[in-house]
Amino acid sequence: MDFAFLIDTMQKLLAGVPLTLELTFVSVAIGAALAVLLAVLRASFLPCEWLVRAYVFVLRGTPLLLQIFLIYYGIGQFAEVRNSFLWPFLRQPYWCAILALSLNTAAYGAEIIRGGLLAVPQGAAEAARVSGMSGFLLYRRIILPLAIRQALPAYGNELVIMVKSTSLASIVTLMEVSGISYAIISETYRALEVFLCAGSIYLVINFLLTRAIAQAEAWLNPHLRPATS
Amino acid sequence: MVKISRLLPALAVAVALAVPAAQAKDWKKVVIATEGAYAPYNMHAPDGKLIGFEIDLALDVCKRVNLTCEFVAQDWNGIIPGLNAGKYDAIMSGMSITAKRLEVIDFTRPYSNSPTTFAVMKESPLAAMPDSGVRVSLDDKAAMDKAIKDLAPALKGKVIGVQVSTIQADLLNTYFKGVTEIRTYPTTEEHDLDLQAGRVDAALASTSYFASTLSKPGGDQMKLSGPLFTGGLLGKGTGIGLRKSDADLKALLDKGLNEALADGTIKTLSLKWFKVDISPPS
Q1: DSSP-derived secondary structure letter, B96
Q2: pTM confidence score
Q3: Could you tell me the CATH superfamily of domain A3-221?
Q4: Exposed end of chain B (fewer CB within 10 Å): N or C?
């Protein structure tokens, strides 16, 4: 084992961690808000169920790699887009990656939250209505907290997958952990060591993330905590 | 079946040549391997014949030194082992002379050295960069310093696209780091797409590569700009690969190449196939 090389590689890869984390958090924040909106729209009386279904069908049914390529290289081909107000954002690889990751995770998130909403007991909603709650108040106080609690374990999976999905941003020139590892490999031809280092970085990030999700689950399920004396 | 039929004559020739090549220093016939898939250096014409810059050059050089030269197509992978195994006597396949290859085979003098330069969009403010078309050798420190000083104001704050881990990326990182933003792409085609989309202000690659880009659809909107960089970390160019034991053949071909370079034949062929002069410095 060439420890000097491993340490050097690790230092170079760690420089990409802030970008990996940023891509994850920004796209998860946007994607989660969009997912809640989509799930509520689908469950609501508004006639847009087919729209949400179509969105989920397309975004969940195509590879994220292609979505990033289409948003980055595809949209930029049209002069109309390049002359529009959107171009200052779409010109930058960073925002193209954020857009693709957000839209993608929103599709999965919407399905997870829909499952959570379906799992809210009818009785809880009825009891709230009897107490005079309705509309937004009903959602905010009763339905969403219960739905999120039900959905969190599945949503935790999605968060872990998102951390790993950011590695695809390297194909649009973003030098996050994977992008840096590809560059090191094409200089040194030492794929094994470099990918081992990169893999261990993702492993540590996801270890911390799954701990945090477990904490959140415990907090949202006070009735499952052991009784304290 | 095509491959086998192509290889059979190569094998037959290799067997025929293996004995004389080992004993006699009297070269009459040389079999040259080429990939046949690296336009415009070498490629297959629609009728299956090998054509290209290297084929034309080899015919010219062989005539100069009274050799009969014959081309065989050989996959890029395995082209060096095939040479050392005696399947053919030389390689002309756009092969750059590198230290790593020099460990296993020998090379003639370089016969082409495609300079590195910028491609930009025609309407871009970078369309007429300082020193455009001027050859600048990285070995000439004074000339290089001047070129960097001339280019710095034009390139300041611009984004340059380049293929990852190439000699061109080395050039940007060595000389233009801090002046421009360097964006690295997995392939050269991708930085061309982003140049056309306006995400990068210029792309840096070899002129022989850009020659093919400019002839593709959309390429008429692009043009080359800035100095033509050579030498230094960009390497010595492409040469004819030979077995280390064939010093006599190397001497013959070097003589032919030197003549072809001196009388402008290499320049003429280069303009014919690449539309730019990629002849090496003498």
Answers
A1: B
A2: 0.71
A3: MetI-like (1.10.3720.10)
A4: N
